[in-house]
Amino acid sequence: MVFNLRTFSFAESVEDDPPPPPKSFSLKELRRATDNFSGENFLGEGGLGKVYRGRLADGSLVAVKRACTVRQWSKEQFEAEVQVGSTVSTHPNVLCLRGFCRTKKELLLVYPLMINNSLSYNLTGRPDRLSRPLDWTTRKRIALGAARGLAHLHNQGNIKIMHRAINASNILLNVHFEAVIGDCAIAVIMDENNAEEGTIEWYPWPADSGSDSQSYHRYEDVYVNNTTFCGTPGFLAPEYVDSGKCTLKNDVFAYERMLLELMSGTKISELISLSYEHLSLEDWIGDLMNKNELGRVIDPNLQGNYREEEAERLALLALLCSHKNPSIRPEMTKVVRMLESQVLQRDPSTRSSWSQSDGDSTPYYSFPPSPSPSPLGIAP
After folding, report:
1. At a CB cut-off of 8 Å and minimum separation 6, what does 183 contact?
2. What pLDDT digit, counting tens, does each position of 213-227 carry?
3. CATH number, domain with residue 62
4. pTM of the predicted structure, to 2 decimals
């Protein structure tokens, strides 16, 4: 579906569950909560600064992000997170901003502590991940939870928020290992002042096999024009990289890359390296599926403890989310429905229902090939 500014409302949100306003904490309160930002409470470091574990006066555990310096970029990130945190309505799969602290020398953000750290940590950093990997059922729940959270950001009432930094490091895990989307430092609230409808043109990336690589691809959508690229290398959609015009479909593309990390237990940069002989990572995954060899990219730590048909459906969904034609990539609300009906419920529907080909009759991979900050958590 293509958004149209005539129907793309920027009116006030009408959510039934508006977020509580973020609290303005004093620096003294946050120093006390983190034991004066002691090394023992240090959790990690990201683009904005360092993250510390804390306990507020009411006993609740929090993660406190502390900017290294009060520079313009830090201020912009800080203001973006406060603005998004003040706008997004409450949702179990989106991290809720508890509060903030702003002084002449300090910028701090306060979030609930995600006790099980990030998806990235659990896949590639947790010391016992080899002997106690995330099981397949948990990974499916994480895929669905992340999709629900992103769908909420994209369409909560009349507000649409582009996250622009979806990756395994920013998918946090709560005490039940459920996905919670965090880190909105570069998120954009789309409104009439920054969004416009028009044609997005870009060179195919990589060049389509058998096509004129000098021919532009084009599609219509509502976008935000960015003079500075934001996001994680390997997670940026080709049309955004080439045109500088960012749409919600850039988040859908990034979700696909996160899904591949979730299934493989491997960083996307390493997966791209493994597929270097092919035109794209998606071509490689599709080729493996055609050969019935998808198991080669499933996390070996699972030791085969997963349902092959579910893995195939997740892989097909991932490839659909990274389709070279952004208009064919599903909206995240549809991704949620597909996951609920065809993966978690083990619906017997055919795989072809996820394959939106342009006349391609390949029986399995049936659509054409497609062209980090620290988590707010504590290591278990």
Report:
1. 46, 95, 165, 169, 170, 373, 376
2. 557 788 899 989 875
3. 3.30.200.20
4. 0.84
